[in-house]
Amino acid sequence: MVVIGVLFVVVAGLTYTGVLQWIVKHLLGQPSSYPKAITRLMLPVAVLSSFLSNTTVVALFVNIVKMWSKKLGVSPSKLLIPLSYASGMGGVCTLIGTPPNLIISGLYEDKTGESMNVLATTIPGLFCLTVGVLTVIALRRFLPDRKAPEAAFESTGEYTVELLVPSDNPHIAKTIGELGLNSVRGGSLIELCRFDDEKVMSQVPDDEPLMGGDRLIFAGQIDELLELKKTYSLVSADHHIFHFSEVAGGKHKRRTAYVNFGSSLIGTTMRQNHFERDHSITLVAVSRRGERIEQLPRDVVLQAGDTLLLEMGNRKNNIQDLTPALQFFDSAEIPNIGRGTLISTTIMIAMVALSALGVMPLLQCAFIAAAAMLIFRCCSVDQAMRAINWDILMVFAGSVVLGIAIQKTGIAERLAYGILDVCGTNPLVVMMAICLVGTLTTEFISNTAAGAMFFPIMYQAAEKLGYEPYPFLIALMISVSSSFATPIGSPTHMLVYGPGGYRFSDFTRMGLPMNLIILCANIFIVNLVYPLQQI
User: Fold this and answer.
1) pLDDT tens, position by position, 255-312
2) Alpha helices, DSSP H only, in 170-322?
3) Which pLDDT tens digit goes with each residue over 318-329?
4) Which of 42, 195, 406, 511 has the lowest CB atom count within 10 Å?
5) pLDDT, tens digit, for every residue of 2-46?
6) 346-354-17 Cα angle (round to 5)
7) How far is Cα 46 from Cα 98, in angstroms, rounded to an integer?
8) How far apart are CA 354 and CA 167, in angstroms?
């Protein structure tokens, strides 16, 4: 648990010095075919995920891949699933690449007193990665061709109406509340612009007076909103002020976000949940699988993966407060690539090398690397603290306790005997059976929990057969991180679900063959690299 917490700080140093951005800039390029594009994408992502949090890597790559896909003339949905798969397969290539590897290696050290090398899974992991890349290329027809969700937001005139208050309007000096403009038939007021766009108000207060020359921006059903011209004596604005080029200028801050799995917004409407009021944002439009929903945005019952276009206003919103419910991919913090990039990269390489060569334990290496990141100002203390994902640490700690409980209560031994009764005494059959069940289990629960749960079962089964457990556990590490068939099987799948406009079945169609192929590759290469030895 401590190792993972310290590694979050190391990752923060790499992130804020622009290491990931430098790699992206120089490796993606302009491939001439789809298979080459898949290779150019999956290999760098896998390498990065071997040393960094795969969630961090995927979150960085999502927007880049979407822009890259436009340049290549390919739907983002053809690239985002491979992006997520690559991060998972890359994570198993080192002990620090994914939490289950650390859990299993830690429990193994507690059992035997021997520590695993940080690169113990590298050769099997690289082999499975190669097989995975080739499988994605071979099965690319199973990847859906979906329209990008935000494509529904490209024409701003389709979902906003901008009306001007003439100087002789009879309602001048009345308040927004008196006139009922904040919630009108067919939509709602999302912004008021005054004095030639010098003063912009989002979440317009009810006591704000209406003045001549005001621009009122409404979102909702366009036909009904145009009736406001007659009702309130308004006129059409002489030009639209809400094109994306003007939004990018900084006065109108609009951002796209996706509804997370498990979000508190799922099954509610913005009118019911007060989310806008609590966070001083305004919902402008909702898209689902690439199509804008022709309904009042605030009356749409939200689902996981929905794309929301939000008006952030002039207040500096803390995105961290919104991320439990929504996922934003565009970061306001753009790192500068320079001297710090080289320093943080050197620190990371030194940490891995010292641990792999056995100079010092991984925990000490991680502490020294984290301290070096702070000393050389690769990240600030505040950035380092914000980078620590406490939820993951709690899941990790709980998973360790779960694994020990399964072992201490005798459940692991009983399950091991049960598996042996069904599968017989062939070690390869037993290894494959437990790895298969582990792969299917991790489709629905955390891979960290799956690793802790299956460690004692695999260990006990190997001992009952009279074989050294080490190769069995290496195979288990790969299998519990091989979740391809459901979007809830991995946090990275959930990250790409919304941006790709996917359906649940898209992962199943592509992922089930991937699960079986990687399982076979896993068993083959582990037994080739680490031959079974009887105790």
Assistant:
1) 778 888 778 888 898 878 878 777 777 777 788 876 777 676 777 899 888 888 787 7
2) 176-179, 222-225, 228-231, 244-247, 270-273, 275-279, 319-322
3) 566 676 778 776
4) 195
5) 877 887 788 788 777 877 667 766 777 778 888 999 999 999 899
6) 20
7) 12
8) 74
